[in-house]
Amino acid sequence: MMQNQSDPIIRLQGLCKSFGDMRAVDAVSLEIQRGEFFALVGPSGCGKTTLLRMLAGFETPDAGQILIDGRNMTNVAANKRPINMVFQSYAVFPHMNVAENIAYGLKIAGLARDEIQSRVEEALTLVKLAGQQLKKPDQLSGGQRQRVALARALVMRPQVLLLDEPLSALDAKLREAMQLELVHLQKTVGITFLIVTHDQSEALSMADRIAVMQDGAVRQVAGPKALYETPNCRFVADFIGKINLFEAMAAPAGKPGRIRISSILFGDQELDGNARGSVTLAVRPEKIHISHHRAAQDGLISIAGMIMDISYFGGYSNIFIDIGTGHPLMASITNFHPDGANAFSRGDPIWCSWRDTDTLLLTD
Protein backbone atom coordinates (compact mmCIF):
# COMPACT_ATOMS: atom_id res chain seq x y z
CA MET A 1 0.00 0.00 0.00
CA MET A 2 1.34 3.42 -0.99
CA GLN A 3 2.06 5.58 2.07
CA ASN A 4 1.14 9.24 2.32
CA GLN A 5 4.28 11.31 2.96
CA SER A 6 2.52 12.94 5.90
CA ASP A 7 2.05 9.54 7.58
CA PRO A 8 4.52 8.61 10.36
CA ILE A 9 7.54 6.61 9.18
CA ILE A 10 7.42 4.56 12.42
CA ARG A 11 4.43 3.39 14.41
CA LEU A 12 4.97 1.40 17.60
CA GLN A 13 1.72 -0.05 18.90
CA GLY A 14 1.49 -1.51 22.39
CA LEU A 15 5.03 -2.93 22.45
CA CYS A 16 5.86 -5.13 25.44
CA LYS A 17 9.05 -6.97 26.32
CA SER A 18 9.97 -8.87 29.47
CA PHE A 19 13.15 -10.61 30.57
CA GLY A 20 12.11 -13.13 33.19
CA ASP A 21 10.09 -11.26 35.81
CA MET A 22 11.34 -7.85 34.65
CA ARG A 23 9.07 -5.87 32.32
CA ALA A 24 11.60 -3.90 30.25
CA VAL A 25 9.09 -2.28 27.90
CA ASP A 26 5.49 -1.85 29.03
CA ALA A 27 2.83 -1.24 26.35
CA VAL A 28 4.70 1.53 24.51
CA SER A 29 2.95 3.25 21.60
CA LEU A 30 4.80 5.94 19.64
CA GLU A 31 4.67 7.67 16.27
CA ILE A 32 7.80 9.12 14.66
CA GLN A 33 7.52 11.39 11.65
CA ARG A 34 9.46 11.27 8.39
CA GLY A 35 12.64 13.33 8.49
CA GLU A 36 12.36 13.83 12.24
CA PHE A 37 15.24 13.81 14.70
CA PHE A 38 13.63 11.90 17.58
CA ALA A 39 15.21 11.10 20.95
CA LEU A 40 14.47 8.44 23.57
CA VAL A 41 15.74 9.46 27.00
CA GLY A 42 15.52 8.10 30.51
CA PRO A 43 17.66 6.70 33.31
CA SER A 44 19.58 3.43 33.02
CA GLY A 45 17.23 0.45 32.93
CA CYS A 46 14.19 2.44 31.78
CA GLY A 47 13.77 0.35 28.60
CA LYS A 48 14.98 2.75 25.93
CA THR A 49 17.73 0.50 24.54
CA THR A 50 15.41 -2.53 24.55
CA LEU A 51 12.88 -0.49 22.59
CA LEU A 52 15.57 0.49 20.08
CA ARG A 53 16.71 -3.11 19.70
CA MET A 54 13.15 -4.25 19.01
CA LEU A 55 12.85 -1.59 16.34
CA ALA A 56 16.15 -2.73 14.82
CA GLY A 57 15.06 -6.38 14.86
CA PHE A 58 17.59 -7.59 17.46
CA GLU A 59 14.84 -8.36 19.99
CA THR A 60 11.35 -9.77 19.38
CA PRO A 61 8.41 -8.13 21.19
CA ASP A 62 6.25 -10.25 23.49
CA ALA A 63 3.25 -8.24 22.31
CA GLY A 64 2.47 -5.30 20.04
CA GLN A 65 3.43 -4.26 16.51
CA ILE A 66 6.22 -2.38 14.75
CA LEU A 67 5.18 -0.62 11.55
CA ILE A 68 7.80 1.02 9.34
CA ASP A 69 6.54 3.03 6.36
CA GLY A 70 3.16 1.36 6.82
CA ARG A 71 4.51 -2.20 6.71
CA ASN A 72 4.35 -4.60 9.64
CA MET A 73 7.98 -5.35 10.53
CA THR A 74 7.35 -6.99 13.90
CA ASN A 75 8.70 -10.40 12.86
CA VAL A 76 10.90 -9.33 9.93
CA ALA A 77 14.62 -10.13 10.24
CA ALA A 78 16.94 -7.24 11.11
CA ASN A 79 18.75 -7.32 7.75
CA LYS A 80 15.42 -7.06 5.89
CA ARG A 81 14.31 -3.84 7.58
CA PRO A 82 14.85 -0.38 5.97
CA ILE A 83 16.90 0.59 9.03
CA ASN A 84 20.54 0.90 9.95
CA MET A 85 22.15 1.35 13.33
CA VAL A 86 25.17 3.13 14.80
CA PHE A 87 26.36 1.55 18.04
CA GLN A 88 27.91 3.10 21.14
CA SER A 89 31.19 1.27 20.44
CA TYR A 90 31.18 2.33 16.73
CA ALA A 91 31.88 -1.35 15.74
CA VAL A 92 34.22 -0.40 12.88
CA PHE A 93 36.40 -3.21 11.52
CA PRO A 94 40.00 -2.64 12.73
CA HIS A 95 41.60 -4.61 9.86
CA MET A 96 39.87 -2.53 7.16
CA ASN A 97 40.69 1.02 6.13
CA VAL A 98 38.07 3.78 6.17
CA ALA A 99 36.87 3.22 2.59
CA GLU A 100 36.61 -0.55 3.09
CA ASN A 101 34.62 -0.08 6.30
CA ILE A 102 32.16 2.21 4.56
CA ALA A 103 31.88 -0.04 1.50
CA TYR A 104 31.34 -3.26 3.47
CA GLY A 105 27.54 -3.26 3.48
CA LEU A 106 27.38 -2.27 -0.19
CA LYS A 107 29.60 -5.21 -1.16
CA ILE A 108 27.43 -7.61 0.85
CA ALA A 109 24.40 -6.20 -1.00
CA GLY A 110 26.11 -7.00 -4.32
CA LEU A 111 26.31 -3.50 -5.80
CA ALA A 112 28.54 -2.84 -8.79
CA ARG A 113 32.09 -1.60 -8.14
CA ASP A 114 31.47 1.83 -9.75
CA GLU A 115 28.31 2.35 -7.71
CA ILE A 116 30.14 1.39 -4.50
CA GLN A 117 33.01 3.78 -5.23
CA SER A 118 30.60 6.62 -6.02
CA ARG A 119 28.58 6.08 -2.84
CA VAL A 120 31.69 5.77 -0.65
CA GLU A 121 33.11 9.04 -2.01
CA GLU A 122 29.76 10.74 -1.43
CA ALA A 123 29.62 9.44 2.15
CA LEU A 124 33.21 10.49 2.87
CA THR A 125 32.40 14.04 1.79
CA LEU A 126 29.17 14.05 3.79
CA VAL A 127 30.92 13.15 7.05
CA LYS A 128 33.99 15.30 6.36
CA LEU A 129 36.43 12.44 5.91
CA ALA A 130 37.48 13.08 2.31
CA GLY A 131 41.17 12.21 1.97
CA GLN A 132 41.10 9.84 4.94
CA GLN A 133 39.87 6.74 3.06
CA LEU A 134 43.15 4.76 3.29
CA LYS A 135 43.63 5.19 7.05
CA LYS A 136 42.95 2.36 9.49
CA PRO A 137 40.64 2.98 12.50
CA ASP A 138 43.59 3.03 14.95
CA GLN A 139 44.99 6.02 13.03
CA LEU A 140 41.81 8.03 13.63
CA SER A 141 40.52 10.08 16.55
CA GLY A 142 37.36 9.07 18.42
CA GLY A 143 35.35 11.64 16.51
CA GLN A 144 36.67 10.39 13.17
CA ARG A 145 35.84 6.76 14.04
CA GLN A 146 32.35 7.92 14.91
CA ARG A 147 32.09 9.52 11.46
CA VAL A 148 33.19 6.25 9.82
CA ALA A 149 30.39 4.43 11.66
CA LEU A 150 27.90 7.08 10.53
CA ALA A 151 29.10 6.94 6.93
CA ARG A 152 28.88 3.13 6.88
CA ALA A 153 25.25 3.36 8.03
CA LEU A 154 24.23 6.26 5.77
CA VAL A 155 25.81 4.78 2.64
CA MET A 156 23.10 2.09 2.72
CA ARG A 157 20.48 4.84 2.37
CA PRO A 158 18.17 3.57 5.12
CA GLN A 159 14.78 5.13 5.75
CA VAL A 160 15.60 5.28 9.46
CA LEU A 161 18.95 5.57 11.26
CA LEU A 162 19.10 4.34 14.85
CA LEU A 163 21.82 5.72 17.14
CA ASP A 164 22.51 3.98 20.46
CA GLU A 165 24.39 6.36 22.80
CA PRO A 166 26.60 7.33 19.82
CA LEU A 167 28.54 10.11 21.58
CA SER A 168 29.03 8.67 25.06
CA ALA A 169 32.65 7.58 24.42
CA LEU A 170 33.76 11.09 23.37
CA ASP A 171 35.18 13.78 25.63
CA ALA A 172 32.90 16.71 26.53
CA LYS A 173 34.21 19.23 23.98
CA LEU A 174 34.20 16.74 21.08
CA ARG A 175 30.78 15.45 22.12
CA GLU A 176 29.36 18.97 21.87
CA ALA A 177 30.90 19.48 18.43
CA MET A 178 29.54 16.12 17.23
CA GLN A 179 26.06 17.04 18.44
CA LEU A 180 26.05 19.99 16.06
CA GLU A 181 27.46 17.84 13.25
CA LEU A 182 24.81 15.15 13.74
CA VAL A 183 21.99 17.70 13.57
CA HIS A 184 23.47 19.26 10.42
CA LEU A 185 24.00 15.82 8.89
CA GLN A 186 20.43 14.73 9.62
CA LYS A 187 18.98 17.87 8.04
CA THR A 188 21.26 17.41 5.02
CA VAL A 189 20.34 13.79 4.26
CA GLY A 190 16.69 14.10 5.37
CA ILE A 191 16.67 10.63 6.94
CA THR A 192 14.71 9.97 10.13
CA PHE A 193 17.12 9.75 13.07
CA LEU A 194 16.19 8.01 16.32
CA ILE A 195 18.75 8.48 19.07
CA VAL A 196 18.86 6.80 22.47
CA THR A 197 20.69 8.70 25.19
CA HIS A 198 20.73 8.99 28.97
CA ASP A 199 22.02 12.56 28.60
CA GLN A 200 18.96 14.83 28.68
CA SER A 201 20.97 17.94 27.68
CA GLU A 202 22.15 16.07 24.57
CA ALA A 203 18.55 15.28 23.64
CA LEU A 204 17.39 18.86 24.30
CA SER A 205 20.07 20.30 22.02
CA MET A 206 19.57 17.87 19.12
CA ALA A 207 16.06 16.46 18.86
CA ASP A 208 12.90 17.79 17.25
CA ARG A 209 10.89 15.74 19.76
CA ILE A 210 11.78 13.69 22.82
CA ALA A 211 10.13 10.73 24.55
CA VAL A 212 10.96 10.40 28.25
CA MET A 213 10.82 6.83 29.57
CA GLN A 214 10.53 5.49 33.11
CA ASP A 215 10.22 1.83 34.16
CA GLY A 216 9.47 0.67 30.62
CA ALA A 217 6.74 3.24 29.92
CA VAL A 218 6.71 6.56 28.06
CA ARG A 219 5.83 9.39 30.47
CA GLN A 220 5.80 12.30 28.02
CA VAL A 221 6.48 13.07 24.35
CA ALA A 222 7.10 16.70 23.39
CA GLY A 223 9.49 19.14 21.76
CA PRO A 224 12.51 20.24 23.82
CA LYS A 225 11.07 23.60 24.89
CA ALA A 226 7.66 22.19 25.85
CA LEU A 227 9.28 19.31 27.73
CA TYR A 228 11.48 21.71 29.72
CA GLU A 229 8.91 24.46 30.32
CA THR A 230 5.78 22.34 30.81
CA PRO A 231 6.63 18.83 32.07
CA ASN A 232 3.52 16.76 32.74
CA CYS A 233 4.72 15.00 35.91
CA ARG A 234 7.28 15.20 38.69
CA PHE A 235 9.52 12.53 37.14
CA VAL A 236 9.87 14.40 33.81
CA ALA A 237 10.39 17.74 35.57
CA ASP A 238 13.15 16.26 37.73
CA PHE A 239 14.82 14.30 34.90
CA ILE A 240 14.88 17.05 32.27
CA GLY A 241 17.22 19.75 33.52
CA LYS A 242 17.69 21.00 37.08
CA ILE A 243 14.67 21.97 39.16
CA ASN A 244 13.54 22.86 42.67
CA LEU A 245 10.59 20.89 44.06
CA PHE A 246 8.25 21.81 46.93
CA GLU A 247 5.36 19.96 48.53
CA ALA A 248 2.10 21.86 48.96
CA MET A 249 -1.68 21.50 49.29
CA ALA A 250 -4.16 22.78 46.70
CA ALA A 251 -7.77 23.89 47.19
CA PRO A 252 -10.31 25.89 45.14
CA ALA A 253 -9.66 29.64 45.19
CA GLY A 254 -13.25 30.68 44.43
CA LYS A 255 -12.44 31.75 40.86
CA PRO A 256 -12.72 29.50 37.77
CA GLY A 257 -9.35 28.05 36.81
CA ARG A 258 -7.61 29.34 39.95
CA ILE A 259 -6.48 27.42 43.03
CA ARG A 260 -5.07 28.37 46.41
CA ILE A 261 -1.74 26.77 47.25
CA SER A 262 -0.79 26.40 50.90
CA SER A 263 2.85 25.81 51.85
CA ILE A 264 4.78 26.10 55.11
CA LEU A 265 7.59 27.78 53.17
CA PHE A 266 5.77 30.67 51.52
CA GLY A 267 2.25 30.71 52.93
CA ASP A 268 -0.80 30.89 50.67
CA GLN A 269 -0.54 31.72 46.98
CA GLU A 270 -3.04 31.74 44.12
CA LEU A 271 -2.08 29.97 40.90
CA ASP A 272 -3.74 28.86 37.68
CA GLY A 273 -4.87 25.23 37.79
CA ASN A 274 -7.54 22.74 38.80
CA ALA A 275 -5.61 20.49 41.20
CA ARG A 276 -6.90 19.38 44.59
CA GLY A 277 -5.09 17.94 47.59
CA SER A 278 -1.37 17.13 47.69
CA VAL A 279 0.64 18.65 44.82
CA THR A 280 4.25 19.37 43.89
CA LEU A 281 5.38 22.87 42.97
CA ALA A 282 8.47 23.26 40.82
CA VAL A 283 10.62 26.16 39.66
CA ARG A 284 13.67 26.12 37.42
CA PRO A 285 16.89 27.56 38.95
CA GLU A 286 17.27 30.23 36.26
CA LYS A 287 13.81 31.62 37.10
CA ILE A 288 14.89 32.47 40.66
CA HIS A 289 16.14 35.95 41.51
CA ILE A 290 18.25 36.38 44.65
CA SER A 291 18.79 39.63 46.52
CA HIS A 292 19.97 40.94 49.87
CA HIS A 293 16.55 42.62 50.21
CA ARG A 294 13.04 41.28 49.82
CA ALA A 295 11.52 42.22 46.47
CA ALA A 296 8.53 44.57 46.84
CA GLN A 297 6.50 43.50 43.80
CA ASP A 298 3.14 41.89 43.26
CA GLY A 299 3.01 38.46 41.64
CA LEU A 300 6.21 37.23 43.27
CA ILE A 301 6.77 34.26 45.56
CA SER A 302 9.50 34.99 48.11
CA ILE A 303 11.49 32.82 50.54
CA ALA A 304 14.20 33.87 53.01
CA GLY A 305 17.37 31.80 53.24
CA MET A 306 21.14 31.73 53.67
CA ILE A 307 23.77 30.96 51.04
CA MET A 308 25.38 27.58 51.67
CA ASP A 309 27.62 27.31 48.63
CA ILE A 310 28.44 28.85 45.24
CA SER A 311 29.53 26.77 42.24
CA TYR A 312 31.26 28.79 39.54
CA PHE A 313 30.88 27.71 35.88
CA GLY A 314 32.34 30.67 34.01
CA GLY A 315 29.35 32.40 32.43
CA TYR A 316 27.02 31.47 35.27
CA SER A 317 27.06 30.28 38.87
CA ASN A 318 24.78 27.96 40.81
CA ILE A 319 23.88 29.33 44.23
CA PHE A 320 22.76 26.81 46.87
CA ILE A 321 20.53 28.31 49.55
CA ASP A 322 19.47 26.88 52.92
CA ILE A 323 15.72 27.53 53.24
CA GLY A 324 15.18 25.32 56.28
CA THR A 325 13.80 22.23 54.55
CA GLY A 326 16.93 20.09 54.59
CA HIS A 327 17.09 20.36 50.77
CA PRO A 328 18.90 23.44 49.43
CA LEU A 329 17.19 25.69 46.91
CA MET A 330 19.30 26.22 43.77
CA ALA A 331 19.38 29.46 41.80
CA SER A 332 21.37 29.90 38.58
CA ILE A 333 22.59 33.42 37.88
CA THR A 334 24.83 34.88 35.20
CA ASN A 335 28.18 36.43 36.09
CA PHE A 336 28.05 39.37 33.69
CA HIS A 337 26.17 42.03 35.63
CA PRO A 338 26.43 43.72 39.07
CA ASP A 339 23.92 41.30 40.58
CA GLY A 340 25.95 38.29 39.50
CA ALA A 341 27.58 35.75 41.78
CA ASN A 342 30.33 38.19 42.81
CA ALA A 343 27.73 40.16 44.78
CA PHE A 344 27.16 37.20 47.12
CA SER A 345 29.19 35.13 49.56
CA ARG A 346 28.73 31.97 51.61
CA GLY A 347 26.79 32.72 54.78
CA ASP A 348 24.91 35.73 53.34
CA PRO A 349 21.26 36.02 54.42
CA ILE A 350 19.26 36.56 51.24
CA TRP A 351 15.80 36.56 49.68
CA CYS A 352 14.86 34.26 46.81
CA SER A 353 11.93 35.25 44.61
CA TRP A 354 10.27 34.23 41.37
CA ARG A 355 7.10 35.07 39.47
CA ASP A 356 4.06 32.97 40.32
CA THR A 357 3.67 32.37 36.56
CA ASP A 358 7.06 30.58 36.60
CA THR A 359 5.79 28.06 39.15
CA LEU A 360 5.03 24.63 37.67
CA LEU A 361 2.14 22.74 39.25
CA LEU A 362 2.62 18.95 39.17
CA THR A 363 -0.02 16.50 40.34
CA ASP A 364 1.68 13.21 39.37
CATH H-tier superfamily of the largest domain: P-loop containing nucleotide triphosphate hydrolases
Tell me the distance between the termini. 42 Å
CATH class descriptor name of the largest domain = Alpha Beta
Indicate how many domains the architecture comprises. Answer: 3
Portion in strands? 35-45%
How many strands in all? 20
Number of helices: 8
CATH architecture of the largest domain: 3-Layer(aba) Sandwich
* CATH topology descriptor of the largest domain: Rossmann fold
Largest sheet: 6 strands, mixed
Strand order of the largest sheet: 6-7-8-3-9-10
- What structural class do helix, strand and pairing data support? alpha+beta
The outline comes out as globular
Average pLDDT, rounded to a whole number, is: 88
- Helix percent reads 10-25%
Query: What is the chain-wise order of helices and strands?
Result: EEEHEEEHHHEHEHEEHHEEEEEEEEEE
What is the rounded Rg? 25 Å
Poorly predicted runs of 5 or more residues: none
